[in-house]
Structure formats: structure tokens, C-alpha cells
Amino acid sequence: MKLLILGATGPTGRHVIDLAVRSGDSVTAFVRNQAALGDLAERVTPVTGDATSHRDLAAAAAGHDALVSALARGNSVRADGLFTRASAAVIGAAGEVGVSRLVWLSSFGVGDTFHWSSTTQKLIYSTLLRSIYADKEIADESIRSSGLDWTVVYPTRLTHGPAMGTYRADGRLPMKGNPTISRADVAAFMHQAAHGSEWINRAAVISD
User: Fold this and answer.
1) Angle, to 10 degrees, between the axis of helix 82-97 and the axis of helix 54-61?
2) Residue segments in the chain with a per-residue pLDDT below the cut of 70
3) What CATH number should be reported for the domain holding residue 75?
4) Nearest-angstrom CA–CA distance, 13 and 170
5) Longest pairwise C-alpha distance within the chain
6) Where are the beta strands (DSSP E) in the chain?
7) Following DSSP, what letter does each residue of 48-89 receive, concatenated?
8) How confident is the model over 96-118, as pLDDT tens digits?
9) Residues β-bridged to residue 105
10) Which residue range or ranges hold the NAD(P)-binding domain (predicted)?
11) For the whole prediction, is pTM greater than 0.70?
12) I want to staple 121 with a disulfide (CB 3.0 to 4.6 A). Which of 5, 117, 135, 195 is the partner?
């Protein structure tokens, strides 16, 4: 499978790349700075561009089977419109070059998932993460109405732990406290979703 991966140099994106390469996929890593790929640069096709640019994404996406976005703001709590601008660019580019499959990383607590959150989660989402989650909500709604074969992934609090393979994934999950999931497990789910049809046009809440 030919995959174009956005957010490839981030901690979740790097896990997606590693899984894809090991499974025999042909991987294009869409990055702002190729040097940030480090040793991964020799295992993928690096393409430099702006994830909010329709033109850059269309040039990179042509000929691929699926787009996988692990875009994130790192440690910043300010969205600066990244997700709304990137989603518009991805939707436009995918439509232009005929790539219908999109797996998009969001966050639990965005949109309707906020209402299923625990009291602890609601406090965090409505204060510290308010700006980013508002931006992500607009992006997610755009993707849902895009006409693409989308999957939006809603992980709980991300950790740098190893992949356990015992996570839960469903349209809705009960929440207590502030549960976590490793980035490695999220990447495994996203990679699997890109290869299958089970999660097409569905949102996936994922947590340990």
C-alpha cells in the first residue's frame, strides 16, 4: 500500500512510519524539515511541504492509496488554526488527485466526545486545551462532511509507553478519571484502519 503520512516527524507519526515500513508499505513522509526524520529518511520517500497548503499536499498525494495524518501541536496549547487549515488543504488535495482514504488523528474530548468525558477530563478539556479542541472540532466536522472515506481517531491522553495491543476501540467508551493510551498503540490502530474497511466513515474512540 502507498501511504502519505502527515505529521511524520512527530512522536505518533514516527510510530506510524515504522509500522508501515516494517509491513512493506511504500511510505511518503510529508515534512517541513527532512533533517527531522533522522534515520527514517533512508526508509521512506521524504517530501518537504506545508501541511496547510493545498498545492503542496496535492503534489505529494498523487498516486497514493491513503493519507494518514498524525499532525499535532506538540507541547503548545495554542491551535493557531493548524487543524482547520490542514483539514481544508487535505480535503481539497485528496479530492483533486483522487485519493479517497483518510485516517485523521484528533483527540478525545473534541466535539461530541466531550460529553462522554469524565469530570476530570472535562476540566482539562474546557480550560487548558480549549483553544486546540475548538480548532480540532471544526476540522473534524469538515472531514466528516468531505465525501472522503474518512476515519477520525479520538485517543485519550497520549503517553510514550510501548505498544501493548490490548487497547479498546469503539464509537464510544466509558471513561473514569483521566485514562491514557500509548502513541505506539494509536499508531498501530491508525495503520490497521488505513488498510481495512471496518472504520470507514466512522469515528474511533481509543483508550487502554
Assistant:
1) 40
2) 75-77
3) 3.40.50.720
4) 22
5) 45
6) 2-6, 26-31, 45-48, 66-69, 101-105, 149-155, 157-159, 168-170, 180-182, 202-207
7) E--TT-HHHHHHHHTT-SEEEE----TT----TTHHHHHHHH
8) 999 999 999 999 999 999 998 99
9) 153
10) 7-194
11) yes
12) 117
Identify which of 152, 141, 137 has the alpha carbon closest to the alpha carbon of residue 104.
152
Residue 185 structural domain: 2-207
5 contact partners, CB below 8 Å, separation of at least 6: 13, 16, 17, 20, 27, 28, 29, 30, 67, 68, 69, 70
Distance between CA 49 and CA 83 in Å, rounded?
A: 16
Distant-in-sequence, close-in-space partners of 9: CB < 8 Å, separation ≥ 6: 29, 31, 32, 33, 36, 37
Report yes or no: 105 and 12 within 8 Å, Cβ to Cβ.
yes
Count how many Cα atoms sit within 13 Å of the Cα of residue 195 in the half-sphere of its side chain: 14
Give the number of other CB atoms < 10 A from CB of residue 51: 22
